[in-house]
Design brief:
Blueprint (H helix, E strand, L loop, with lengths): L27 H5 L5 H15 L8 E2 L11 H13 L16 H11 L9 E4 L2 H12 L5 E5 L3 H10 L5 E2 L4 E2 L2 E5 L18 E5 L11 H14 L2 E5 L25 E6 L1 H4 L7 E4 L12 H12 L5 H10 L2 H27 L4 E3 L5 E5 L6 H12 L1 E2 L1 E2 L10 E5 L4 H15 L1
Parallel strand pairs: 1-13, 3-6, 3-7, 7-8, 8-9
Antiparallel strand pairs: 2-10, 4-5, 9-10, 11-12, 12-15, 14-15
Helix pairs in contact: 3-10, 5-6, 5-9, 11-13
Bound molecules: D-malate.
Length: about 425
């Protein structure tokens, strides 16, 4: 079975008679990418199924892409609305803002979410964590070796390929040459044996993890920081799911770990906190102490990318971000997250009730289901789509280490989660 999404259509090549072609050579890095980006590929498969079975269209339930579904709560919404309204007044109008974000929002992020362990000037407000990961890649360029958890959020690998850091994909292993894959499966409690893996320049690490739902403990993160420090690697910590952490003592930020300021930067996002997947607002923290081998600051180069290729997050949206961090906004975020965590619990219980081993779903919105030995995750995805009209994500879509697992997203509305649980039990039980 293919580890990555096998393309439904041949890879973007048009017939020469159809169009007159330019004389521009295609960026060879793009020819290395296998198939499309995972989530649109899932969407294409769902649409292909609906096209063949139009009578089933209204039955489709999505537990696929981790897209929020609950309305933006009142106080947070009022922040968006009032900053939009201000633009219609002479006094309130504003044009370009600071590329790094509004000073008030940077300060509020540093104070309210990090309790002062980072400085306002180290916070770069953006349009989301995914976009920031590409900007991080632009800072590091094409000559670095990247390490990723396997399975992992596909953006780390795909952007590494686009940047030209990798060789081709190896058809046997389904891994790109020149990327260090750090296996994370139930056998190692989803934490890599990092000391025994080859060194990488840049280590991407997501906790709570997408897709496995594993939230790394303090001891695990201490080990990660220690190994990165000993090896002179830079850790890019993705904390986009941090507010889902409910277990005591599990760090919500890498900066809770001693020594992290010298080795780590952190990407984060309001997407899953506050239902901002469409609104778009995120941030990246780059500490002053994080440097390159020549002693120059990573922060300065990240700032250079932001000021050159980004004009700052929308002023309307930053008003929403400010409201998120008021006490009322923070309480609304907690309520939203409780709702999605309850969904995760229902999904986990449903799969466990029919005998599956299930991971994640307690400090994360993703439930990671182990499939019976030898069962392909793409085949299981298709079977569930066809028999139960439930969209899931095959573990293999997140890299070869995800083969043998299925990811269920808890971001669906409650009634559809309940219905999906009963259909999954019927189909797989
Ligand atoms: C996912 O389903 O993994 C996420 O929604 C993707 C994302 O946040 O970009």
């Amino acid at each position: 079975a293919a580890a990555f999404a096998p393309p439904l259509v041949s890879n973007n090549v048009v017939s020469s008679s159809a169009l007159s072609m330019s004389k521009v050579e295609r960026n060879p890095n793009f020819t290395k990418l296998i198939g499309g980006y995972l989530f649109p590929e899932i969407g294409r498969r769902r649409n292909a199924y609906i096209e063949k079975n139009p009578e089933m269209a209204s039955r489709i339930i999505s537990l696929g892409i981790g897209d929020t579904t609950q309305p933006i709560p009142e106080h947070i919404l009022s922040g968006l609305v009032s900053s939009a309204s201000k633009l219609g007044t002479k006094e309130g109008y504003s044009g370009y803002g600071a590329e790094q974000g509004m000073a008030e929002l940077r300060k509020k992020i540093a104070d309210k979410l990090y309790g002062g362990i980072i400085k306002d000037s180290e916070v770069f407000v953006s349009d989301g964590a995914k976009c920031d990961i590409m900007r991080v890649q632009q800072v590091f360029g094409s000559r670095v070796v990247t390490a990723v958890q396997d399975p992992s959020y596909p953006v780390y690998v795909d952007t590494s390929v686009m940047m030209g850091q990798t060789g081709n994909i190896n058809p046997e292993t389904k891994q790109y040459d020149n990327i260090v894959y750090m296996p994370c499966t139930d056998e190692n409690n989803f934490f890599p044996d990092i000391e025994n893996l080859p060194r990488a320049d840049i280590v991407y690490f997501c906790s709570p993890n997408n897709p496995t739902g594993a939230a790394a403990t303090k001891e695990q993160l201490e080990k990660l920081v220690k190994v990165c420090k000993e090896r002179g690697s830079i850790l890019v910590f993705d904390a986009a799911y941090a507010p889902f952490i409910r277990s005591e003592g599990v760090p919500k930020s890498i900066f809770e770990i001693e020594g992290a300021r010298e080795v780590a930067m952190e990407c984060n996002s309001f997407s899953k906190y506050a239902g901002f997947t469409g609104v778009r607002l995120g941030w990246t923290v780059v500490p002053d102490e994080l440097t390159f081998a020549d002693g120059s600051k990573v922060r300065d180069d990240f700032n250079r990318v932001m000021t050159t290729a980004f004009n700052g997050a929308s002023n309307i949206v930053q008003g929403g971000g400010l409201a998120c961090l008021d006490d009322e906004g923070l309480a609304e975020i907690d309520t939203l997250i409780d709702y999605y965590l309850e969904n995760a619990k229902l999904l986990k219980e449903a799969m466990e009730s029919i005998g599956y081993a299930v991971y994640g779903g307690t400090d994360a919105p993703y439930v990671f289901v182990k499939l019976p030995e030898g069962k392909s995750s793409w085949d299981t995805f298709s079977e569930i789509l066809e028999k139960a009209q439930v969209v899931t994500i095959p573990g293999a879509g997140f890299g070869p280490g995800g083969e043998g697992y299925l990811r269920l997203s808890a971001f669906a509305p409650r009634d559809t989660v309940i219905e999906a649980c009963s259909r999954l039990k019927e189909t797989l039980g």
